Amino acid sequence: MKPMKFRPALLGAFAAALLTGGPAVARAAPLPAPSAITAVTVYTDRAIVTRAAALDLAATGTVEVTFENLPATLLDQSLHVSGRGAAQVTILDVTARAAYVDFTPNERVKAIEDALRALAKQRRVLDDRGGVLKAQDGSLGKLETAATSAPHKDTAPRLTIEESAKLLVFLEEQRGKFTAERQSLDTQLEDLAAKVDAAQRTLNELRGAGGRATKTVTVRLDATTVGTLNLALSYTVPGASWTPSYDARVNSNEKSIALAYYGLVRQNTGEDWKNVALTLSTARPSLGGAAPEVRPWALDVFVPRPEPMPIAFGTNAREMRMKTAAAPASFGAVTLGAVADSPPPPKEASFAQATIDQAATSASFKISAPASVPSDNSAQKIPVTTTALAANPDYLTTPKLQPAAFLTAKVVNTSEFPLLAGPLNAFLDGTFVATSALRTVMPDETFDLALGADEGISVKHKRVKRFAEDTGLTKSGKRVTYEYLLLIQNNKQIAARVIVADQIPVSRHEKIVVKQLSPDAKEMKPTAEGALKWTLDLQPAEKRELTVKFSIDYPNDVQVTGLEP
Predict the structure, then answer these.
(1) Where are the domains of the chain?
(2) Which residues contact 552 (CB under 8 A, 6 or more apart)?
(3) Half-sphere exposure of 91 (CA within 13 A, CB side)
């Protein structure tokens, strides 16, 4: 019987079968999936990124598809994969693994790092040249010392006057060259330091996007037929946010406001978003999907902590231990309320589904045009919508505090967009006039819009008189009378409604009596805090004068605080 001969390939398969307990099966190499970011949904503290990859499956069976060089900060639990195509596949599982490389995967960060290395080389060249100049200057000093010192029997004789003059000229020329070159080096070093500082600042902005750690996501598929397959991979990354911003443009001749709604998007996720379908969401996933549960609120009687037992030695210590062991337990504690049970197990937070809904507190704004947002944490101002809102403009003024009339408007949000709280820039007749803030306003809700001061309404406030006199038959009291004049003029070409606010003092003591003299208290009653308010409908060029007059009576033995001198 001839001995059996095994070929190397068969021998390897036989060994694999012995080790695994079954036939050896060749495992297909992972299939890289070249992908691109197609859509991003930005929240106030994170973003969901969607990548798309087109594959051509040439064989059936288990296939591993890899998405490489993804951000190291992506949340593993947020991975989601979907597929569609001619190939019939079943998604088995998704795995994310950290990968470390010896280069910087982010191209923009790598370019800045290369630039910093080049600047460092330039710095070394300049420093080396500065060292050479310093050495040469030292050599000149030694030459000058040797030439001007007293001659020695073993040295050359003293220089002649002509030779000394030539030496001085040479030293002066060389030192002049050294000084000019050192000044040039100093200038170059200053310019270089500025470039290094700028590059370092930019690199610091991109630090979250840099690094040499990435993640590789592997999607395991079971393919029953071959053909094309489009895979979509989505994941959540921190380092992205958006905040609302508004521009309100008002035409003083029209009762409407053109409100421009913007989203200021920032991101430092490590990936540049280029021409992506961008969505801004007002949902806050960090709050979770359910309201927190109330835990039992228990009350108990305070029991002071026992004082520590004194340390004793010998027989006394033994007796003390016996007494302590025999001491009865305390029954003085009385519980009020329910006993706190163990807290319920935590529930997994669900992600809110935001849509534009008049009854919802969240919305998703799908930006109409593709957007590009670089990963450098810079603010990208992206238009959301522009809407014309009907407004009833009024002017509010408090002349005593500030001689200016501020345009305000009552506006109804007739759009389908909820307006989130954010800064607002106000423009009046095409001119920037003020910066204010907008509170959160839902659709169909009425809100007040502050639009800044309007110089077309002239406001003045002045004190006409202050008169102090004694009161009572024995002159046991004092009375101080104040009179103020308020001047309001409409210098605009259209009628304007101006609401004027002023005040009279309020007494906090029974011995101090404040009497309102003008306006008549029957016609205008102040509030509990002493506020007065007029509503004036002024025609173009119309001027109105308002008088505020009051007296304050108090005994001589009372020292009153708050009086104007």
Answers:
(1) 26-105+212-238, 107-205, 241-285+355-453, 457-555
(2) 479, 480, 481, 482, 505, 512, 513, 514, 515, 560, 563
(3) 16
pLDDT of 206: 62
Report the distance separating Cα 449 and Cα 408, nearest Å: 6
- Tell me how crowded residue 194 is: count the other CB atoms within 10 A of its CB: 10
Quick: pLDDT tens for 186-210.
Answer: 888 888 888 888 877 776 666 554 4
pTM over 0.90: no
Angle (nearest 5°) at CA 454 between 450 and 456: 150
User: What secondary structure does DSSP assign to 413-465, as a single string?
Assistant: --SSS-B-SEEEEEEETTEEEEEEEE--B-TT-EEEEEEEE-TTEEEEEEEEE
- pLDDT above 50 (res 143): yes
Contact 64, 32 (CB under 8 A): no
Q: What is the tens place of the pLDDT at every residue in 6-45?
A: 444 444 444 444 444 444 444 567 899 999 999 999 999 9
pLDDT in tens, 489-518: 999 888 999 999 999 999 999 999 999 999
Strand order in the sheet with 61-71: 31-32, 61-71, 213-223, 89-100
The three-state secondary structure class of 93 is strand
Nearest-angstrom CA–CA distance, 250 and 427 = 6
Q: Which residues pair with 96 in a beta bridge?
A: 217
Return the closest-CA partner of residue 434 out of 417, 421, 451.
451
Mean pLDDT computed over 272-282: 92
Q: Is the predicted pLDDT of residue 341 greater than 50, yes or no? A: no
In this predicted model, which residue has the larger pLDDT, 232 or 338? 232
* Burial track 12-22 (b if 16+ CB lie within 10 A, e otherwise): ebeeeeeeeee
pLDDT at 292 over 60: yes
DSSP string of 205-271, one letter each residue: HTGGG-SSEEEEEEEEEEESS-EEEEEEEEEEESSEEEEEEEEEEE-TTSSEEEEEEEEEEEE-SSS
- Asked if the bond preceding 519 is cis, omega within 30° of 0, the reply is yes
Calculate mean pLDDT across residues 231-257.
Answer: 90
CATH topology of domain 457-555: Immunoglobulin-like (2.60.40)
Residue 475, pLDDT above cutoff 50: yes
CATH T-level fold of 107-205: Helix Hairpins (1.10.287)
Amino acid (one-letter) located at 93: D
pLDDT of residue 151: 64
Cα 373 to Cα 463: distance, rounded to the nearest angstrom: 58
Query: For the chain, first and last CA: distance in Å?
Result: 130
Those residues whose C-beta lies under 8 Å from the C-beta of residue 19, and which sit 6 or more positions away, are none
Determine the Cα–Cα distance for residues 528 and 510; give it in Å rounded to an integer. 15
Tokens of residue 453, six digits: 């001061």
Instruction: Give the pair of three-digit tokens for residue 369.
Output: 């045009």
Task: Read off the tokens for 323.
Answer: 């007494």
**Residues contacting 481, CB < 8 A, separation 6+:** 465, 466, 467, 468, 469, 517, 549, 550, 551, 552
- HEC string of 12-40 equals HHHHHHHHHCCCCCCCCCCEECCEEEEEE
Q: Which of 278, 396, 326, 283 is nearest to 38 (CA)?
A: 278
